[in-house]
Specification:
Helices cover 32% and strands 18% of the residues. The chain has 228 residues and is an alpha/beta fold. The model has no long low-confidence stretch (mean pLDDT 96). Bound molecules: S-adenosyl-L-homocysteine (SAH).
Length: 228
């Protein structure tokens, strides 16, 4: 059975977009399916209106609860119901792993100033953020979430061992990577990596990952040490 992704958006033509290419694209229709539904199809008036002015005043528009709820109810989507939102819980590799272990995900993409709070409460939407900055809509966030999830689905990544060694897999960032040429612009590959001594290579990588994480992401490193 393949993993079912359902996207609710005002711009269904943005999907699959980049996910129609490379790793995710090759698995699309086989290991996973993607349905992008237009929220506007749930509108009821002649102009297919989905938004209105914010209660209490202020700039911009807000997506209506009744229209969005109907779009959700009629979507046929399965799995966790997410709303892309800068107020949400920060998306993480652990969340990607949880979602990939299920049979699907349904993602609502906001636009305008956001969506009416009541639909978040009544439909139990989990707000998910992809970072502390404001995008103009949830579509790029949904693509980011799906990309992270799809590559973890069974049979999608060619060499599945690589998932276990990547950044975040065990709380550390990845070590530096090198490939031929052995010397480039006067810079050599660290000799231990070409020594053929697997134990030494593993030790060098472990050490490099720890130093790199401590320097760049003291927050991650503190958590790594306290979890160990
Ligand atoms: N007025 C809102 C921002 C709305 S941005 C606020 O200040 O919180 C419009 C839409 O883009 C949002 O509804 C959300 O779906 C999406 N979006 C913007 N930034 C995002 C982020 N960092 N992560 C996930 N979705 C985001």
């Amino acid at each position: 059975m393949s993993f079912a992704a359902t996207i609710l958006t005002l711009y269904p033509e943005m999907f699959p977009g980049p996910l129609g290419h490379a790793l995710a694209g090759r698995a699309l229709g086989d290991k996973w399916t993607l349905t992008a539904r237009n929220i506007r199809d749930a509108a009821t008036d002649r102009h297919r209106t989905v938004d209105d002015t914010p209660a209490g005043g202020g700039p911009g528009m807000v997506m209506r609860a009744d229209i969005l709820a109907r779009a959700i109810d009629e979507s046929g989507g399965t799995g966790p119901l997410l709303l892309m939102s800068p107020r949400g819980v920060p998306f993480s590799q652990a969340m990607a792993r949880d979602i990939a272990a299920g049979d699907g995900v349904t993602i609502v993409c906001g636009r305008f100033e956001g969506v009416d709070e009541r639909v978040i409460e009544r439909r139990g939407l989990t707000e998910v953020s992809i970072g502390d900055y404001i995008l103009s809509g949830g579509e790029i966030g949904a693509l980011a979430v799906l990309d992270a999830v799809v590559r973890l689905l069974p049979g999608v990544m060619g060499n599945s061992a690589s998932a276990d060694e990547e950044s975040f897999a065990d709380g550390l960032l990845e070590h530096p990577q090198y490939t031929r040429p052995a010397e480039w612009e006067g810079a050599a590959i660290p000799p231990v990596l070409t020594s053929g001594d697997h134990a030494k290579v593993a030790a060098w990588r472990r050490d490099a990952r720890r130093r790199l994480t401590a320097r760049r992401r003291p927050d991650l490193f503190a958590k790594y040490l306290s979890d160990a």
